[in-house]
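Thread amino acids onto this structure.
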């Protein structure tokens, strides 16, 4: 562990987070808080740990290049945290977590609605011990409504909220039919919304002008988030009562804004205004297109999309992908390749921004370091810090328990009883 691992830094230095969440949405939220300097204590089940530790392949590799038993999935959302193991099914484990919650600023959990009440770890129980506590619950469908008791998963919510109905090629086209997004975006967006809500609640508690000094309860639901991130597609439906459908990579409100086959592959054109379209036409010696009444404005191009594509598709096949990018990149016409993830990590801009980070890990499990994706938050005065690699299961149990006042005898007893 480097010297900075135990040094509070960042915008949230001094904030202590008790992370009772698993899988992706909750851990994504708490990783953002950890990146910003909060001390995030990740509570995991003894022996098994977070489910995603086992969601492989792919797995992390040891120093000899061999697969370990730790799935890479876990590392996507657990950087900068300390892992402890506690069996909350045992009374001693419950008492230990309540003791920790008394000193925490934030608790994040994603158990089923009401699931923690039996352990005395629900909001009302912990609020009585710590009125300043900000408590965030993440569920599939929220704390009320007819679906409140149901378990919720990203794929299910992508389907229910309508996202899959607008993702993929249209029915009747090759490959047509609903598709999920290639990443669990509802979980990720829920994590983003949750972290924003937590920061707002902390500010409401601590603001020097009108802070209440009290925490509050945050009810986050995957379905709510799924509906919210439909963005312009939802706005279009609300304005017209007409549900949009799948249109592949075509943008419903812009043209041309999609992928095109080239002489050797594919290229992406993302023309978002009339000036860009005019510059594109000039670059390909088709100035007349920009003056054609069918294409002179974006609205006209959208309405006459089929005619425009009949002209563009054969034209785009006349050059290679690299030739199109070379032609258009200095003319302020948005154009780019459709990369694989491997190609994206090799992109000069991605490399220049330091997106790939490798963090050392000294947990005695043969994994010397873990590669991770840098946070996109770039703060000038309180930058994100990379203090810890995603931890091994229970790596910091004894360290954290000592900080909460337990002596070596008490810690040894908890180990012996199977509580930690």
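Threaded sequence (420 positions):
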């Amino acid at each position: 562990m480097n010297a900075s691992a135990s040094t509070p830094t960042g915008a949230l230095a001094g904030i202590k987070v008790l992370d009772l969440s698993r899988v992706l949405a909750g851990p994504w939220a708490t990783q953002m808080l950890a990146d910003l300097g909060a001390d995030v204590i990740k509570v995991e089940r003894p022996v098994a740990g977070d489910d995603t530790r086992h969601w492989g392949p792919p797995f992390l590799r040891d120093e000899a290049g061999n697969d370990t038993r730790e799935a890479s999935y876990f590392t996507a959302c657990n950087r900068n945290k300390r892992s402890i193991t506690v069996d909350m099914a045992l009374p001693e484990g419950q008492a230990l977590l309540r003791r920790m919650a008394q000193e925490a600023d934030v608790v994040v959990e994603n158990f089923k609605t009401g699931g923690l009440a039996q352990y005395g770890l629900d909001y009302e129980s912990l609020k009585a011990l710590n009125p300043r506590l900000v408590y965030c619950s993440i569920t599939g469908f929220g704390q009320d409504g007819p679906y409140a008791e149901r378990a919720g998963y990203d794929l299910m919510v992508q389907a229910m909220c309508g996202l899959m109905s607008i993702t993929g090629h249209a029915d009747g086209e090759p490959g047509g039919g609903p598709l999920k997004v290639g990443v669990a975006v509802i979980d990720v967006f829920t994590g983003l919304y949750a972290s924003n809500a937590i920061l707002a609640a902390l500010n409401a508690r601590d603001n020097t002008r009108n802070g209440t000094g009290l925490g509050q309860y945050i009810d986050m639901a995957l379905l709510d988030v799924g509906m919210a991130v439909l963005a312009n597609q939802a706005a279009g439906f609300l304005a017209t009562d007409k549900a949009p459908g799948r249109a592949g990579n075509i943008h419903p409100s812009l043209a041309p804004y999609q992928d095109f086959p080239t002489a050797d592959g594919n290229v992406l054109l993302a023309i978002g205004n009339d000036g860009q379209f005019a510059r594109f036409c000039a670059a390909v010696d088709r100035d007349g297109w920009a003056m054609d009444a069918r294409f002179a404005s974006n609205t006209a191009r959208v309405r006459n999309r089929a005619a425009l594509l009949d002209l563009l598709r054969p034209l785009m096949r006349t050059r290679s992908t690299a030739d199109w990018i070379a032609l258009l990149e200095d003319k302020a016409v948005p154009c780019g390749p459709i990369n694989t993830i491997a190609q994206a990590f090799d992109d000069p801009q991605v490399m220049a921004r330091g997106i790939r980070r490798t963090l050392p890990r000294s947990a005695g499990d043969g994994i010397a370091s873990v590669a991770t994706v840098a946070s996109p938050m770039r703060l000038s005065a309180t930058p994100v810090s990379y203090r810890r690699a995603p931890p091994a299961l229970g790596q910091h149990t004894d360290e954290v328990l000592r900080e909460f006042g337990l002596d070596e005898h008490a810690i040894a007893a908890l180990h012996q009883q199977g509580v930690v």
